Structure formats: C-alpha cells, structure tokens
Task: inverse folding
C-alpha cells in the first residue's frame, strides 16, 4: 500500500513540510511516481525499526494504542534530519521598510 505525504504525516504525527524535507535530503524511503511522492508502508516500517532495534512487531497503521511507541521512534529520526541553523540571517520585512518610509 502506497501512502501520500498527507497519509504519512497523519500516521507519524509530523508536518508534511518535514516529510518534504526528509525526501529532499534522502532521509526517508520513498518513490516518485509521475512527480508525486509516495511511501511504501513496509519500507517506512523498516526505516522506523532501524531507529529502535528493540521493536519486534509491525506497527499497525493509524492505531492510537501505539502512538507513544511511534513518537519514540520518530524522535531520533527528527534529530537525525534536522540540523542547527548556524549563521542564519533574518531579512528585514518589506512591510517594515514601507512603514518606515511614511
């Protein structure tokens, strides 16, 4: 069964933008079909299990009973995917410039 960004985002309880970032960085297994990103449920389960070798049973899709287990598996993936923003600069707002000119 192939999942969409929205499906996987709901299942893993993470933002779609995070999934797009992970796809762009090659951090999560996915397929592109005619330009659309799809996720194989089994490959995602294997990927999640790689973060916690203690997990021995497959995770049922959308089960509230395993929400805490999924959250514990996702946390190391988030830490692996996110990098600190060193030297990031914030551009001034164009609206602020207009207000100052008045």
Result:
């Amino acid at each position: 069964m192939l999942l969409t960004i929205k499906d996987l985002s709901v299942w893993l309880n993470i933002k779609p933008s995070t999934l797009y970032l992970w796809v762009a960085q090659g951090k999560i297994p996915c397929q592109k079909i005619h330009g659309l990103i799809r996720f194989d449920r089994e490959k995602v389960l294997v990927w999640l299990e790689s973060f916690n070798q203690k997990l021995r049973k497959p995770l049922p899709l959308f089960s509230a009973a395993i929400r805490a287990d999924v959250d514990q598996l996702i946390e190391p993936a988030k830490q692996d995917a996110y990098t600190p923003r060193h030297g990031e600069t914030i551009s001034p707002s164009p609206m602020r410039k207009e207000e100052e000119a008045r």
In short: Helices lie at 5-12, 16-25, 41-49, 67-81, 94-101.
